[in-house]
Amino acid sequence: MPPSALQLLIALVLAGLTFAVGGPLSIGGGQSVDALDAFLLVFALVNLRLGWNAANTSGGGRAPGWFVALGLLTAALITYAMIHALTPRPEATRGIRPAEAGDRCLLLATPGRGQASGHGSSDGLYAV
Q: Around Cβ 118, how many Cβ atoms within 10 Å?
């Protein structure tokens, strides 16, 4: 396996890994971006660049056709994943919110929360 193919494979694995892992970073206003994905994608881009340089060097100044095609697909995947990672999204609430009047759902009582909390529930009941 040529060294350029290994670098390309590493870039593909790092870009693909971003769809399986995530590390949301709050940016305020109830929104977050995925900082872990952005971090992994930077390394994917560096590996793609190193691989492309190695392919150009070994091919007499021109990368092989298969490498150019896979490299462009990898670059497109990295671009899509980076836009997805850095687009602000509402922060996840994990499906739990204070209960409101008229809710028809499972209610969880939280002991010791009888005081008013200012979150729409003064009896310590939460809707799931």
A: 8
Residues 83 and 109 in one domain: no
| 52 and 108 both lie in a single domain | no
Per-residue model confidence as pLDDT tens for the chain (128 residues): 787 899 999 999 999 898 888 888 888 888 889 999 999 999 999 999 999 999 999 878 889 999 999 999 999 999 999 999 999 988 765 555 555 666 565 545 555 544 444 555 445 555 55
How many residues make up the chain in this entry?
A: 128
Q: Which residues of 92-115 are buried (b: 16+ CB within 10 A; e: fewer)?
A: eeeeeebbeeeeeeeeeeeeeeee
Do 12 and 63 lie in one domain? The reply is: yes
Question: Residue 123 is part of which domain span?
Answer: 94-128
Query: In whole angstroms, what is the distance from residue 80 CA to residue 70 CA?
Result: 15
Q: Are residues 47 and 106 in the same domain?
A: no
Structure tokens at 95: 């499906």
Residues 86 and 98 in one domain: no
What does pTM read for this prediction? Answer: 0.66
